[in-house]
């Protein structure tokens, strides 16, 4: 995984409503006890950090938050002003501001936060994304399929296998595994670059890329030819199959796959990516959650997928700070039966109201099929569909198709309709 960084350029990062978000993300088996002080208001993000944190106002008007993150957990707060102190400065955790890694020992320096780009400027990654991996960090640079396969087969934890910026690597029928602890990278966003490409023109097996544990895939384009709406047919394949724990996919562009752009057999973090044009009927997922209870999908741009984020029915996820573009085959976020565990869907903007497969307009944005074991908590979203949520199989903004009353589904503080909400904290960063 990449070393936490301090960004070197850009405008001061402001979250929705003039607030930033700070996140403490455990990367180990031991709890992390933390404390930070901000010059302005501090508030735990609903569903994160509640129950194990406290925020106190100090005599000088600053606020100090204290808390603990359990094994592989995360706590998230919004804050105003700037951070004046953070501890610890090292350990098995990552510190992020508006989804971007920062050095814990430098976050209290005024220039650190001022150097980060706005969250809206790097939504979907690409130009300006401050955590891009430069070619100088590469252990090996590859430009063809034989070189890529050899590099991955010989890579060890900590290595960076780098796809040359100008390369388009056709994988044919090969299925490649990124070994545990290895980063597979290219230069998407650096000086406006598109990033090197891994191309899967032949539909074969699971797809071109599979991961081990603690893998990072960043700065790449992963493409296939099936980028227009077609009826369901086999064979099918996916762009990246996450078959290990603790993986991260960021600053990538993935398109053209019939099953799923990203297929998750374990929880993972997918952020600052552009996931689009995976529209086959019957499947056609952007991110499909099959295993794990803590997948995080944030700061992405989605467009023209059948379903952009879906759950096969037994896992859990958090979907936040994403933008769902104006073209969709069906609902954008949801779950299959029996209904999954805990679903958190908040601070997103949902634009598409017309579904290609039904022709109806407006149509649903979120569909909770079945009943979650815990809850589907849906809040602070901007739904362009003006129709208020309703149970059953209707065309409202939020539906629960297999129930005549909402069961374990909560929704509040959402905005309905295409007019921009007056509350700047609703919707994705803008």
Automatic annotation (TrEMBL):
Classification lineage: Archaea, Methanobacteriati, Methanobacteriota, Stenosarchaea group, Halobacteria
Pfam family, one: Beta_helix
Organism: Halosimplex carlsbadense 2-9-1
Domain Right handed beta helix: 236-351
Tree of life domain: Archaea
Name the UniProt record assigns to this protein: Right handed beta helix domain-containing protein
Ranges for region Disordered: 1-24
């Amino acid at each position: 995984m990449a070393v936490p960084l301090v960004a070197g350029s850009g405008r001061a990062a402001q979250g929705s409503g003039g607030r930033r978000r700070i996140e403490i993300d455990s990367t180990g088996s031991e709890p992390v006890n933390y404390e930070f002080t901000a010059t302005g208001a501090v508030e735990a993000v609903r569903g994160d950090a509640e129950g194990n944190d406290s925020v106190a106002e100090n005599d000088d008007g600053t606020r100090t938050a204290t808390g603990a993150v359990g094994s592989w957990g995360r706590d998230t707060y919004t804050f105003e002003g700037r951070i004046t102190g953070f501890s610890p400065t090292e350990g098995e955790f990552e510190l992020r501001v508006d989804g971007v890694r920062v050095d814990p020992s430098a976050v209290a320096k005024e220039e650190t936060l001022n150097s980060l780009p706005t969250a809206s400027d790097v939504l979907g990654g690409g130009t300006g994304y401050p955590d891009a991996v430069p070619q100088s960090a590469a252990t090996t640079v590859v430009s063809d399929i034989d070189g890529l396969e050899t590099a991955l087969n010989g890579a060890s934890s900590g290595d960076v296998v780098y796809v040359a910026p100008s390369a388009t690597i056709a994988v044919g029928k090969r299925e490649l595994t990124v070994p545990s602890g290895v980063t597979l990278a290219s230069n998407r966003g650096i000086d406006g670059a598109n990033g090197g490409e891994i191309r899967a023109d032949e539909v074969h097996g699971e797809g071109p890329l599979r991961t081990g544990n603690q893998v990072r895939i960043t700065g790449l384009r992963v493409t296939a030819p099936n980028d227009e709406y077609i009826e369901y047919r086999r064979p099918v394949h996916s762009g990246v199959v996450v078959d290990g724990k603790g993986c991260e996919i960021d600053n990538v562009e993935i398109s053209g796959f019939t099953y799923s752009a990203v297929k998750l057999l374990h929880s993972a973090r997918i952020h600052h990516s552009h996931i689009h044009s995976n529209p086959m009927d019957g499947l056609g997922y952007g991110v499909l959650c099959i295993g794990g209870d803590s997948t995080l999908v944030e700061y992405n741009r989605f467009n023209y997928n059948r379903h952009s984020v879906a759950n096969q029915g037994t896992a859990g996820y958090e979907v936040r700070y994403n933008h769902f573009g104006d073209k969709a085959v069906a609902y954008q976020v949801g779950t299959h039966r029996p209904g999954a565990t805990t679903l958190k869907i908040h601070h997103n903007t949902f634009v598409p109201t017309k579904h290609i497969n039904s022709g109806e307009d407006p149509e649903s944005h979120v569909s909770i099929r079945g009943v979650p074991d815990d809850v589907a908590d849906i809040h602070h979203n901007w739904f362009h569909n003006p129709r208020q949520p309703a149970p059953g199989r209707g065309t409202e903004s939020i539906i629960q198709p297999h129930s005549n009353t909402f069961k374990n589904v909560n929704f509040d503080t959402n905005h309905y309709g295409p007019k921009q909400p007056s509350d700047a904290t609703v919707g994705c960063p803008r």
